[in-house]
Amino acid sequence: MSTGIRVRFAPSPTGQLHVGNARTALFNWLLARAEGGTFVLRIEDTDFERSTKDAERTAIDDLRWLGLTWDEGAEVGGPYGPYRQSERLHVYRAHAVELMSKGQAYHCFCSEEDLERERYEALRSGMPPKYGGRCRGLSKEDAHRRLQNGETAVLRFRVPEEPRDIGWEDVVRGPVSFRSDVIGDFVLLRSDGVPAYNFAVVIDDALMAITHVVRGEDHISNTPRQVLLYEAFGWRPPTFAHVSMVLGPDHSKLSKRHGATSVSEFRETGILPEALANYLALLGWSPGDNEELFPLDELARRFRLADVGKSAGVFDPDKLAWVNRHYLKLAPADRLARLSAPFIEAAGWGQAQGEAATRWLEDLVAAAARGDDNADSRWSGKCVECWATPIIRHAKVAVHFIGVRFSPRRFVRGRER
Question: Helix (H) and strand (E) counts for the chain?
């Protein structure tokens, strides 16, 4: 039964699902399951130049592979749809009209050159760049006339003139606040009518009744603008929790130069979904004891948002490999064989020919997962004829695909044909 807690994960389908974003999805899913709430998947696909259906499909497949099912959202539906932003443009425009009618939004005709010049002057003076308000005083009649004459304009939010603190109690960070006078009038709708991120996300979260927004700390600077929008519409802001970034071993932002960074890449290297989910949960969250190995249902039982720490999580590939070995040892042999066979066949190292070949591969990968040093005596000469090529000579490479490294002497010493 739902407790009323509603969380969401809202990926932008512009590339592969980064493990940092996957951890954010996991934390939201764990919170929903721990509290008996609702997990929503929303697709933020208004970057029409970069968003692709292939990227959306990959993200959805990766989430399902991790075991993160959603109660509402893309491909599932629900009472607050549609769940793709590209299908909600009329909703954003209607709310933009509402703000204009209350004098809380206005058209801005400033050129990119004007804005860049303002930004340069602010930075040169040591001030944070913000919009100077050149078009803030335009009358509605002047703005309408200019639009009728074919000029293009964005729609900006009118930040209240009276300076004040804009703050919230962050579940992870504690009290956070910004001064309103460092926030310029920000864009709501671009000149083509597409909503800016801060506008769309507030409309969606409010209309989808999201109660808790759990996201990366890189969104902290967006939050005061979003709080202002909640206030302008008379809505209560959700509870915010900004989790730390995932860093590489050198403590810089995790990126391609550190190796694999996407869920898809880890899938392709033989990491099991339960291993990756378990490891990601430990990046920033602690169960409060010395235990580290938890299946997904146990993670959900133990997870508390208040236990997520402020410190950045450092991604350690060796630790992930250790966690993966644990789950490999628990996995049934037939599952490991199913996972490894497509890679072996795709590489042209062999093709299963009958039930005996399947049983032989199950024996191989099960012993590999156990780290069996004496397996060669059982495998020597057995069932090699069941494969199109002598797979035994490729065993070291084959088992790499299920995340285990071996010395080739275990398998090929005097056995090649």
Answer: 16, 12
Two structure tokens written together for 346: 């795709």
Whether pLDDT at 413 is above 80:
no
Q: Which residues pair with 6 in a beta bridge?
A: 38
Q: How far apart are CA 415 and CA 417, in angstroms?
A: 6
pLDDT tens per residue, range 187-218 = 999 999 999 999 999 999 999 999 999 999 99
Supply the residues annotated as catalytic. 256
Confirm if 92 and 98 have CB atoms less than 8 A apart: no
For residue 262, the cross-strand partners are: 18
Averaged pLDDT for residues 341-358? 68
211 phi and psi angles, rounded to 5 deg: -100, -30
Residue whose entry in the numeric block shows the structure tokens 């430990």: 282
Widest pairwise Cα distance in the chain: 90
What residues does 8 pair with on adjacent strands?
Answer: 40
**Tokens found for residue 411:** 């398998």
Specify the pairing of strand 72-73 against strand 105-108: unpaired
Summarised one tens digit per residue, pLDDT across range 382-411 is 444 444 334 444 444 444 444 333 222 233
Which stretch of DSSP H or E encloses residue 406? none
Omega before residue 342 within 30° of 0, cis: no
Total residue count of the chain as it appears in this document: 417
Residues in Cβ contact with 59 at an 8 Å cutoff, skipping those fewer than 6 apart: 11, 13, 16, 17
The angle at the Cα of 387, spanning 386 to 393, to the nearest 5 degrees, equals 115
- How many other β-carbons are positioned within 10 Å of the β-carbon of residue 117? 13
| CA pair distance 388, 302, nearest whole angstrom | 48
Check if the beta carbon of residue 27 is closer than 8 Å to that of residue 39.
no
CB 396 within 8 A of CB 379: no
Measured between alpha carbons, how far is 30 from 300 in angstroms, rounded to an integer? 5
Q: Is 236 exposed, middle or buried (0-12, 13-18, 19+ CB in 10 A)?
A: exposed
Q: Count CB neighbours of 333 within 10 A.
A: 17
Nearest one of 344, 342, 341, 332 to 394, comparing CA atoms: 344
The rounded mean pLDDT for the chain is 86
Q: How many angstroms separate the CA atoms of 207 and 211, rounded? A: 11
